[in-house]
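Regression test case RT-17, inverse folding.

Input:
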């Protein structure tokens, strides 16, 4: 299992989530973040210049789904300008769904039909790795 972490412009979030849904990759944790790939300090305003982004976390069971998720993110965030974002992968040793005690792949698979609801420009999924 892998955790895919991606930080990118929040304007791309809806498109990324739609593409992940189209590829049947359920579940995501989304956090608003600020940051800068190359730290920039504006001496005139005496402030650091940070971008408003989102951080997306997805747990996937195997290499194939990991690559599909990366391509979904890349296809919707990559452009010719700087600051398209970053993504990285970490191995996940164990996952447990707290409510049921399911572990590993059973814990990241939906236990019921996944509903797609649009709330404030975010898709949410019921009973997924993020719930």
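Golden output:
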């Amino acid at each position: 299992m892998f955790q895919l972490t991606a930080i990118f412009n929040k304007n791309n979030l809806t498109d990324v989530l739609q593409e992940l849904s189209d590829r049947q990759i359920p579940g995501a944790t989304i956090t608003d973040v600020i940051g800068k790939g190359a730290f920039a300090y504006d001496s005139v305003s005496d402030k650091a210049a940070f971008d408003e982004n989102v951080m997306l976390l997805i747990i996937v069971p195997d290499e194939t789904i990991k690559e599909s998720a990366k391509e979904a993110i890349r296809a919707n965030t990559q452009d010719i300008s700087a600051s398209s974002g970053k993504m990285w992968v970490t191995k996940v040793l164990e996952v447990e769904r707290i409510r049921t005690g399911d572990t590993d792949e059973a814990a990241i698979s939906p236990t019921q039909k996944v509903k797609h609801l649009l709330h404030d420009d975010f898709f949410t999924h019921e009973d997924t790795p993020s719930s």
